[in-house]
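Ticket #4471: structure output looks truncated?

Reporter: J.K.
Steps to reproduce: submitted the chain below (440 residues) through the standard prediction queue, then opened the result file.
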Amino acid sequence: MRVINKFLIIILLFSLSACELDLVNPNAATEEQVLNTKDGLISLAVGVRQLYSTSAFGIAVLYTSISTRETGAMTTFSSLEELEIGGPTLNGDNERVTRLFSNVMRVKGMAENLVASVDNVSLSNDTRASLLAYGNLFRAMCLGILAQNWEQAPILNSPNNDAAFSDRAAVYAEAIRILDESAKAMEGTAIPSDLVGPFGEIDLLNTLYAYLARYYNATGNYDAAIATANKVDLGATSYFSYDAENANPIFGGFFVGTVEYAPRTNFGLPDALAPDPADGRIGFYMNIVGNTSLYGGLPVEEIAAPFFTSQTASIPAYLPGEMLLIKAESYARKGEIGNAEAALNMVRQKTADDDIYGIGAGLADTYSSGGNQAALLDEIYKNRRAELFLIGTSLDDSRRFNRPEPPTATDFASERNRNFYPYPDNERESNPNTPNDPPI
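Returned output as attached by the reporter:
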């Protein structure tokens, strides 16, 4: 009960913080009282996980899915219409862009406080390492969302709301640094029994490896990406878990109240990259109903994946297929075509029974690019869209694979409608370091 009560106190303290970078002063007496105890640190760890999974992760998936045509908008909300139109129409007063930035920054600030407070308390070595790794994992997840969606972002929050912005390469570099440091610390470290419950269904070490491999690949460190992806146990599970009071946010977007989103037919891929009709991932992720989206008249279906069809459904923190596709992409970009095709075909031929989450294309043929690197990368991109549907990396993927640039005029047929998001107006008004917006 003490942990639950302190968790509620911590959530209250941080929810009363200013909307953006103006977090509660960590030297304030009320926070010191909570964060200078082991129970307080565990409570903050619980708060970081719950706030990330309910208020940051879900919208990072849903909002970018509109920008990259993974989903279509199904309501008349102006903020969603602006997001689907994209281009110059989308600006810093859009409430969804503002919410994504502010929610991610808030969770990141909580994770920073967790990491900074660990040395305030006398802890066993395993408890200290586990809490640091846990805080660094969620901080890195937040940094990754920022680097995927904005040209620049603050690496560290500021209590004075004057945080410096760094280019996304530096943001990724910091995420990689803390993930690598934490993964090394956790190798051979047993998570103490009193942290197993608060950590929920997160497999800490495998999740550290998975996000490290993701960010290595995104930044072009292909050897490290391959080596780290190989460390991930493809039979392990790691979930963001939900309950009636902390509901699955992606379920909310597809099913609750005024339904806002619907999955695009063929994962929103253009005709030239349309998946094989026999691809089992189509039926895993969606029921084919032949509907159309509200604004663009785009073909949409009905979501079916078990991760998203209940308010209490758990969502995987990463998918094992991503590790295979990271290897395929990294090998392809290194020019090791044979190794790339081998990893890719493991994904294409994987059946539902082969996958811990039941995701399987189950294609019988063996893909060969004939030595054509560009064609191979297109096939890898197509499989990322199908295998990794709605995991939140689609905007970064679209840019990295050099998919067509966004149009400057409204065009719902475009593959993506922004390169990066604008900075929220309220951040610009309060933080003088806020950069200029990108044109699209």
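Triage note (M.O.): checked the attachment and the full token line is present. Residues 1-9, 14-30 have pLDDT under 50 and may be disordered.
Status: closed, working as intended.
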